[in-house]
Amino acid sequence: MTVAARPATTAPASPAGPTGPTRPTGLAELSAEIQQFYARQMQLLDDGEAEAWAETFAEDGVFAANAHPEPFTGRPAIAAGARRATDDFAARGIRRRHWLGMLSLEPKDEHTVFVRSYAQVIETARGGQSALRASTTCADLLVRRDGRWLVLDRRIHRDDLD
In angstroms, rounded to a whole number, what is the distance separating the alpha carbons of residues 67 and 156? Predict the structure, then answer.
């Protein structure tokens, strides 16, 4: 059996401005940028860095979840709520990991993106087995301010709650 060789292909050169690569403009580049944002954000929370995690929200940001009676509004309230939760889990010897996937991006303009994703929360008790704690949808309105993405509005809906 003879296999025909395929012609060699070359990738197009990446666009570059006078001082280097240009800013991402396509959906693929935006998607990679947003995924990097979420990876950093969730790792901050999972590492117990509640205040640094809250800094990824706009100063006037909102965190609402159907598991909480009222939304947390404003970065200080978001930080305080995250600090209480991370301290509680640490005191009980529970490590949490948040996994976001199936991101769907809907750019509104060059500074605003609506992102819907699935999020799973995995808990591991010290010396125990890991278990899926929650399956949720996450709906975020992200805004670019001062060159970085921030959550302006986050809506979490746990699948097991009405």
Answer: 8
pTM for the model: 0.82
CATH code for residues 26-158: 3.10.450.50
Would you call 84 helix, strand, or coil by DSSP?
helix
Of 47, 139, 159, nearest to 96 by C-alpha is: 47
Q: Return the structure tokens found at 130.
A: 């890991």
- The letter for the amino acid at 74 is G
The domains of the chain are located at 26-158
**Residue 112 and residue 95: Cα distance in Å, rounded?**
33
The residues pairing with 39 across neighbouring beta strands, listed in sequence order, are none
Low-confidence ranges of the chain (pLDDT < 50): 1-22
